[in-house]
């Protein structure tokens, strides 16, 4: 019986958008992994933020992706050395995004002379706390391959900024629920595809090609479109991210995170011939 690779966004999907609670999802996660399925974070969060949550949810043996697919981590206790990976403590690390967070910070400082935006790294902690509801904002700023900004200029100038980003640095802007991320080319679909490929290489036919993905916002669209089963979690705006018109096997929750996550996993489980738990 083949097992499932379940890729999940965190904020607004597995975790409540406002208070970051995972609610009763820990119990369901235990049931899922007891059947030897994999739950893989594919998130805009940083390594520092993920590290704590992986331990909380007993997922420390799972690979994960951070900064919207910029960096991938694979536990050494389960994965052999991976091509193009570097040694990073208990993980093999693959950085998909070419430029470092330091490079992007220098680029953004120059662009602030032309456009109006705030760099999260430069904001006082009390201001960041208002935007994020986080008591400790240092972990979200501990970035390896990206920077995050708050745009304060016109939509027209945003279009010009995106063009500058692409032409000067071959970079991309990824819209999140709170911030815009600036990085070299990366996204959650690329991360999902590479992680799935490495599972295929190292575990052969153990895991089903029919992947599951859960998300709630625009930066999840590529990941959701590339999964066999796309689970859309209701967000506070009430507007679901728009997937491609011919996309099949779409499930939408009627509840916000964290309850929406478990609602859809349970609903999907009832429809699958091979059960998740």
Compact summary:
The chain has 277 residues and is of the alpha/beta class. 34% of the residues lie in helices and 22% in strands.
Q: How would you describe this structure to a colleague?
A:
By secondary structure, the chain is of the alpha/beta class. It has 2 domains: 177 residues, HAD superfamily/HAD-like (Rossmann fold); 84 residues, Putative mannosyl-3-phosphoglycerate phosphatase, domain 2 (Threonyl-tRNA Synthetase, Chain A, domain 2). Helices cover 34% and strands 22% of the residues. The protein contains 9 helices and 13 strands. The strands form 2 sheets. Strands 5-6-4-3-2-1-11-12-13 form a 9-stranded mixed β-sheet, sandwiched between helices. The longest helix is centred in the C-terminal third of the chain and has 16 residues. It is globular, with a radius of gyration of 18 Å. The two termini are 12 Å apart. The mean pLDDT is 97.
Strand order of the largest sheet: 5-6-4-3-2-1-11-12-13
* CATH architecture classification name of the largest domain: 3-Layer(aba) Sandwich
How many separate helices? Answer: 9
- Cα-based radius of gyration, to the nearest Å: 18 Å
Q: Given this structure, which CATH class of the largest domain is correct? A: Alpha Beta
Question: Poorly predicted ranges (pLDDT <50, ≥5 residues)?
Answer: none
Stated plainly, the CATH topology of the largest domain is called: Rossmann fold
């Amino acid at each position: 019986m083949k097992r499932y690779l379940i890729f999940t966004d965190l904020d607004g999907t597995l975790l409540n958008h406002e208070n970051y609670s995972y609610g009763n999802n820990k119990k369901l996660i235990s049931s899922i992994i007891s059947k030897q399925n994999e739950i893989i974070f594919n998130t805009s969060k940083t390594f520092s933020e993920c590290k704590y949550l992986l331990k909380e949810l007993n997922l420390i043996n799972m690979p994960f992706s951070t900064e919207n697919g910029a960096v991938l981590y694979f536990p050494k206790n389960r994965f052999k050395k991976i091509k193009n990976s570097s040694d990073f403590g208990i993980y093999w690390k693959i950085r998909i995004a070419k430029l470092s967070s330091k490079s992007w910070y220098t680029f953004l400082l120059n662009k602030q002379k032309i456009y109006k935006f705030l760099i999260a790294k430069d904001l006082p902690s009390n201001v960041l706390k208002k935007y994020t509801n986080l008591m400790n904002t240092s972990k979200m700023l501990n970035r390896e391959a990206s920077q995050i900004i708050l745009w304060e200029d016109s939509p027209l100038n945003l279009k010009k900024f995106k063009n500058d980003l692409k032409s000067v640095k071959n970079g991309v802007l990824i819209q999140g629920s709170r911030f815009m991320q600036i990085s070299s080319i990366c996204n959650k679909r690329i991360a999902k595809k590479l992680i799935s490929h490495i599972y295929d290489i190292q575990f052969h036919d153990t895991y089903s090609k029919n992947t599951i993905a859960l998300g709630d916002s625009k930066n999840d669209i590529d990941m959701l479109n590339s999964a066999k089963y796309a689970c859309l979690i209701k967000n506070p705006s009430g507007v679901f991210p728009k997937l491609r018109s011919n996309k099949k096997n779409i499930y939408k929750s009627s509840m916000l995170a964290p309850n929406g996550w478990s609602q859809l996993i349970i609903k999907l489980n009832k429809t699958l011939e091979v059960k998740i738990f």
